[in-house]
Amino acid sequence: MRNKLKLKIGAKTFTATLLDNATTTAMKKLLPMTLEMAELNRNEKYVRLPQNLPANASNPGTIQVGDLMLYGSNTLVLFYETFPTSYTYTKIGRLDDASRLVTALGAGNATITFELE
């Protein structure tokens, strides 16, 4: 089973390493997909998925730039800042190199295409 995800944001392409869990397995079945992700808190982009995914949430303590997580059972979140959190998420994966992520996402909403690499 492939564990690499490709994210296209405008002209930029990123890869992410996916975790091996039930959430990731279910998400892969939705791919490829292009999503309009909304801005939230100047540190993340999020979108509600068309269906619930299995969740096994825990508190990560600190969110890292490039983390891809599930909030609740149907909200996909891509974080572009590092910060402490008291919320719980199910980890899906993480960008391999998030150094250009803030620039690629820009302010406001962002259209992101997710596909297996």
Strand-helix topology:
Elements (H helix, E strand, L loop, with lengths): L3 E6 L2 E7 L3 H7 L4 E8 L3 E5 L13 E2 L3 E5 L3 E5 L3 E2 L5 E6 L5 H5 L4 E7 L1
Antiparallel strand pairs: 1-2, 1-10, 2-9, 3-4, 3-10, 4-7, 5-8, 6-7, 6-9
Describe the structure.
The protein has helices spanning 22-28, 101-105, and strands at residues 4-9, 12-18, 33-40, 44-48, 62-63, 67-71, 75-79, 83-84, 90-95, 110-116. With 117 residues, it is mainly beta. It has one domain (4-116): Cyclophilin (Beta Barrel). An 8-stranded antiparallel β-barrel has the order 1-2-9-6-7-4-3-10. A two-stranded antiparallel ribbon has the order 5-8. β3 and β4 form a beta hairpin. The chain is globular, with a radius of gyration of 13 Å. The model has no long low-confidence stretch (mean pLDDT 96).
Helix-strand category: mainly beta
- Count of DSSP E strands? 10
Strand content: over 45%
The chain-level mean pLDDT equals 96
Order of helices and strands: EEHEEEEEEEHE
CATH class: Mainly Beta
Cα-based radius of gyration, to the nearest Å:
13 Å
Number of domains: 1
Number of helices: 2
The unreliable regions are none
Assembly status = single chain
Give the biggest sheet.
Answer: 8 strands, antiparallel, barrel
Helix content: 10-25%
Q: CA-to-CA gap between the ends?
A: 11 Å
Shape: globular
CATH architecture: Beta Barrel
Strand order of the largest sheet: 1-2-9-6-7-4-3-10
CATH topology: Cyclophilin
